[in-house]
UniProtKB/TrEMBL annotation, chain A:
UniProt keyword Ribonucleoprotein, yes or no: no
Domain Cation/H+ exchanger transmembrane: 106-499
Biased composition (Acidic residues): 795-805
Keywords per UniProt: Antiport, Calmodulin-binding, Cell membrane, Glycoprotein, Ion transport, Lipoprotein, Membrane, Palmitate, Phosphoprotein, Sodium, Sodium transport, Transmembrane, Transmembrane helix, Transport, Ubl conjugation
Membrane topology value: Multi-pass membrane protein
GO BP, sorted A to Z: regulation of intracellular pH; sodium ion import across plasma membrane
Protein name as catalogued: Sodium/hydrogen exchanger
TrEMBL record, chain B:
Protein name, as recorded: EF-hand domain-containing protein
Native organism taxonomy: Eukaryota, Metazoa, Chordata, Craniata, Vertebrata
CDD domains in the record: EFh
Database matches in InterPro entries: Calcineurin_B_homologous, EF-hand-dom_pair, EF_Hand_1_Ca_BS, EF_hand_dom
Listed GO MF terms: calcium ion binding
UniProt family annotation: Belongs to the calcineurin regulatory subunit family. CHP subfamily.
Subcellular location: Cell membrane; Cytoplasm; Nucleus
A UniProt-annotated Pfam family: EF-hand_5
PROSITE patterns, per the entry: EF_HAND_1, EF_HAND_2
Superkingdom per UniProt: Eukaryota
Keywords: Calcium, Cell membrane, Cytoplasm, Lipoprotein, Membrane, Metal-binding, Myristate, Nucleus, Phosphoprotein, Protein transport, Repeat, Transport
Organism for this UniProt entry: Pygocentrus nattereri
GO cellular component: cytoplasm; nucleus; plasma membrane
Length: 805, 194
């Protein structure tokens, strides 16, 4: 029975224009995923999902189940004659609901896997399109089987599918670009959406009044309602498409921020028009109330989110002893914020964003490293699953929904959407550019206009309409779906080649260096000072005031202990050092990490004074140590190469990181370098440890374990050769003569045991070298965030951004 | 704008100043008013004490450097043209400026902005930011919250990153290079001075 289906699928797949034959692995994986799909769909087709608002009577399902399954289904009369004990029985009903839900989730995830196995396809077609197509197919199959496919229930959508995506967006919102462009974003979100709604609604009404379209039944208010539903840019769709094109930060935050903040406008307009559409008129009072309502909805939502955010931050202060449930607080508080806002019909999206953005800096300062990773991955995972499910359901709902196709209405809607968007963006940019320092160019405007995608929120809002009060609901739904399809398919697919064609600036891949960080802070101070001199209360002035307030009061409350006093720069520096240390370990290849590591204690919360460093090797005097360090450091300066940050643990799972090739190249270089080193036995150079035994290398140096460094050196030949008799490394004289760079020992010899902050505050002697050595196990207790778990991972700029630096 | 033009008349060499700095008359007048406000004793020039009297400025970690930038070469008086010239550095860059090869860069060009910032670091004016000067800046910015060792580590690392010719100091070119990704126009411009 599966066979004929497979060929049908195969032909359908071919019909979609996928060139599968060219890639054998592609076809293999496609047939694998297809067969899995078929099997799961077959099961699904039999047992309908209560997830949708499917209205098919339940007894249908029962009988179909009974047909399909062997064994005794259905009703067995309870007679009291003794039956043989049922060794194996079948009782599907009591697990039906969760079973089906998770089957859908499984289907969605397998689809996602399948797409990524076909690289050519996923580079042309954005994932969202593919998922909608899959949804269409699944819906088609289900209806072929004879059952009614489930429709995307608005209740489920708004309560379960949307929050993870928004929380993910809000938690990782890059605060700095967001606040710098907040004015622009707000104007686009509020004024732009209002303009769109009224323009589309108004013109549609005009069109509906034209003779010959038999749309007279559509009065003004339903038109405006439709306009307000369709005008909002959808965050899910924008995220799905923009994530893949890696556009520069400014444009990304503009479009994305707009899609998030227009929720308040949409909510107010929707409720306003829905309320009064029945009555038929809207008075001035209503408009005024609408404006007030808008303020209440948006500010109220933000406030609710802020309260929950502060609560979450405060709670995280005390979780030092129950690290395992730290992530739970983040999720629960955020979700509660969303639900609480929804109780009062405030903007749940803005509440979520505010909650995530506010709690993040404080929570991250308090929680352990592993919790941080957990939160990050769980958020990404759940938002990814949600997004996949949403798109698949959109496809299924298209097949399932009752449609009324009206050519005029649909075509006019699509055209109006585009026209309204373009006009709105151009007009608003013209006004906005007067107030911006970095102006928006025409290219920017084009991308902003083109990136205004509609998505599932519009569909769900339309679905929520009551068909009694709005007899044209089906027509609306059809139009909404068509617009969604149009924007997602046409605009989503073409935006990537257009971005390349227009040579729009892409996202900067490199991370900030510490130079940039220092100088940026310096310039901030400078500008604040100049503003004060000019008497101008500008951007910097308020930012500075907020920072001071934050430092003085808020941080003390919300961040545990010592960390509250830690300045931004230090936190940044620590993070950088940590990352490099981790990179070093991981790219070092085969360096054994000590097995016992304190994995649950967060970095700065360790007091290293309590854990004296124990070295197995004989102690050398501090001044010797200092000199050796100096020598090694000067050597290391020459061999140092900035490693591309990567993260093996996230490498496969995280589609945003791609440093694998560089790492392979570096490994090769390191192996070559090692070979060269093995020929230079007497030199106090910095060898890369052979992948098999660090101890050999250690013995080679025969002394200071701090002489580790695993830097691959492209310029190994320039390593200065310092002849030191390694046989007797502890001879003070031999070492002291060596300082050929003539650097004055101006620095106070550092005492590692005195440092308060353990890992980071060693002198930057091969910052990496030290970490390496410490990881080697001498000072295990100092290992602060568990190094087997690579850290605040590396591909995200938001990690390094201090909160309002 | 009657008051503007009448105030403008009071400013000596207003035309030349506007030409040199690119400020509009409205800006110049505004700055002149501010100059008058700061000059409490009506001396006609400003002294460092006048600057220190600005409350918010006194709280700024690099306040003395900023003041030092205005009073170059140790002078104790700052007249209005010099005041305006320094502030001209913070005008947003005019993107539409025609590029004449012979005329010098305007005061608010990217390169001049960077030079101004560089001079704030480089107090001894030797053209390089030495480790010592960097440490001073870090100390000022981080106030008393960090230990010496931490400061030194950061300073070392900063120099390592930026120092391309290995002279253990950051020259202007290296400074410029390390900031090439930063949008200086955005970071060093004050909007109202457009």
């Amino acid at each position: 029975m599966p066979c004929p289906r497979r060929t049908t699928r195969g032909s359908e797949a071919a019909g979609l224009g996928l060139q599968l034959q060219q890639r054998r692995s592609g076809t293999v994986s496609v047939s694998v995923s297809v067969s899995v799909l078929v099997v799961s769909v077959a099961v699904l087709g039999c047992c309908l999902l209560p997830l949708g608002a499917a209205s098919s009577p339940s007894h249908n399902r029962d009988t179909s189940e009974n047909h399909q399954k062997s064994g005794h289904g259905g009703t067995q009369p309870t007679n009291h004659t003794k039956k043989p004990f049922p060794v194996l029985s079948f009782d599907y009903k009591h697990v039906k609901q969760p079973f089906e839900i998770f089957l859908w989730v499984l289907l969605a995830s397998l689809m996602k896997l399948g797409f990524h196995m076909m690289p050519r396809l996923s580079s042309i077609v954005p994932e969202s399109c593919l998922l909608i197509v899959v949804g269409l197919l699944v819906g088609g199959i289900i209806s072929l089987v004879g059952e009614k496919p489930p429709v995307l229930d608005s209740h489920v959508f708004f309560l379960y599918l949307l929050p993870p995506i928004i929380l993910d967006a809000g938690y990782f919102l890059p605060i700095r670009p967001f606040t710098e462009n907040i004015g622009t974003i707000l104007i686009f979100a509020v004024v732009g959406t209002l303009w769109n709604a009224f323009f589309i609604g108004g013109v549609l009404y005009g069109v509906c009044q034209i003779e010959g379209t038999n749309l007279h039944t559509v009065t003004l208010l339903p038109c405006l309602l439709f306009g307000s539903i369709i005008s909002a840019v959808d965050p899910v769709a924008v995220l799905a498409v923009f994530e893949e094109i890696h556009i520069n930060e400014l444009l990304h935050i503009l479009v994305f921020g707009e899609s998030l903040l227009n929720d308040a406008v949409t909510v107010v307009l929707y409720h306003l028009f829905e309320e009064y559409a029945g009555v038929g008129t809207v008075t001035v009072i209503d408009v005024f109330l609408g404006i007030v309502s808008f303020l209440v909805v948006s500010l109220g939502g933000v406030m609710v989110g802020a309260i929950y955010g502060v609560l979450a931050a405060f709670t995280s202060r005390f979780t030092a002893h129950a690290r395992v449930i730290e992530p739970l607080f983040v999720f629960v508080y955020s979700y509660m914020a969303y639900l609480s806002a929804e109780v009062f019909h405030l903007s749940g999206i803005m509440a979520l964003i505010a909650c995530g953005a506010i709690m993040r800096p404080y929570v991250e300062a308090n929680i352990s490293h592993k919790s941080h990773t957990t939160i990050k991955y769980f958020l990404k995972m759940s938002s990814s699953v949600s997004e996949t499910l949403i798109f698949i359901f959109l496809g299924v709902s298209t097949v399932a929904g009752s449609h009324r196709w009206n050519w005029t209405f649909v075509v006019v809607t699509i055209i109006l959407c585009m026209v309204a968007r373009v006009l709105g963006v151009i007009g608003l940019t013209h006004v906005i550019n007067k107030f911006r320092i970095v102006k928006l160019t025409t290219k920017d405007q084009f991308i902003i206009a083109y990136g205004g995608l509609r998505g599932a929120i519009a569909f769900s809002l339309g679905f929520l309409l009551d068909s009694n009060r709005f007899p044209m609901r089906d027509m609306f739904l059809t139009a909404i779906i068509t617009v969604i399809f149009f924007t997602v398919f046409v605009q989503g697919m073409t935006i990537r080649p257009l971005v390349d064609l227009l040579a729009v600036k892409k996202k900067q891949e490199t991370k900030r260096s510490i130079n940039e960080e220092i100088h940026t802070q310096f310039l901030d101070h400078l500008l604040t000072g100049i503003e004060d001199i000019c008497g101008h209360y500008g951007h910097h002035h308020w930012k500075d005031k907020l920072n001071r307030f934050n430092k003085k009061y808020v941080k003390k409350c919300l961040i545990v202990g010592e960390r509250s006093k830690e300045p931004q720069l230090i936190a940044f520096y620590h993070k950088m050092e940590m990352k490099q240390a981790i990179e070093l370990v991981e790219s070092g290849g085969g360096v054994k990490l000590p097995s016992a590591m304190p994995s649950t204690v967060s970095m700065q919360n360790i007091q290293p004074k309590k854990t004296p460093s124990e070295r197995a090797l004989p102690q050398i005097s501090k001044s010797r140590e200092e000199e050796i360090r100096k020598i090694l450091r000067t050597n290391l300066q020459k061999t140092r190469q900035r490693l591309q940050s990567y993260n093996r643990h996230t490498l496969m799972a995280d589609p945003y990181e791609d440093g694998w090739n560089e790492i392979l190249i570096k490994k090769k270089k390191m192996i070559e370098f090692e070979k060269r080193i093995s020929q230079m036995n007497n030199y106090l150079t910095v060898p890369a440890p052979p992948p098999d035994s660090p101890t050999i290398a250690r013995a080679r140096l025969a002394s200071d374990p701090q002489a580790w460094s695993i830097k691959p050196a492209a310029d190994a030949g320039t390593i200065p050769s310092i002849k030191v008799d390694l046989a007797s490394p502890q001879t003070p004289d031999s070492v002291s003569m060596v300082d050929e760079f003539g650097k004055p020992a101006s620095r106070v010899p550092r005492e590692p045991e005195d440092e308060e902050e353990g890992l980071m505050m060693r002198p930057p002697l091969g910052e990496k070298g030290e970490k390496e050595e410490q990881e080697e196990g001498k000072e295990q207790q100092r290992l602060l965030r568990c190094l087997s778990d690579p850290g605040p991972a590396v591909a995200e700029e938001e990690e390094d951004e201090p909160f309002l630096p | 704008m009657g008051s503007t033009s009448s105030t403008l008349a009071k400013i000596p060499n207003a035309e030349d100043l506007m030409q040199e700095t690119g400020f509009t008359p409205a800006h110049l007048v505004r700055l002149y008013d501010r100059f008058k406000v700061l000059d409490k004793d009506k001396k006609g020039f400003l002294t460092p004490q006048d600057f220190v009297a600005i409350k918010e400025l006194a709280m700024n970690p690099i306040c003395d450097r900023i003041i030092g930038a205005f009073f170059t070469s140790g002078g104790e008086t700052l007249d209005f043209p010099s005041f305006v010239r320094i502030l001209a550095h913070f005008r947003p860059i005019d993107k539409n400026r025609p590029k004449e090869p012979t005329s010098p860069d305007p005061i608010n060009s990217r390169s001049n902005k960077l030079k101004f910032a560089f001079q704030l670091y480089d107090q001894d004016k030797d053209g390089k930011i030495s480790r010592h000067e960097l440490l001073q800046v870090l100390r000022a910015m981080l106030e008393k919250q960090v230990t010496e060792e931490q400061l030194e580590s950061i300073a070392d690392r900063t120099i390592q990153e930026a120092d391309l010719d290995r002279d253990d100091a950051i020259s202007f070119e290296e400074f410029r290079k390390s900031l090439e990704k930063v949008n200086i126009d955005h970071k060093m411009s004050i909007r109202f001075l457009r």
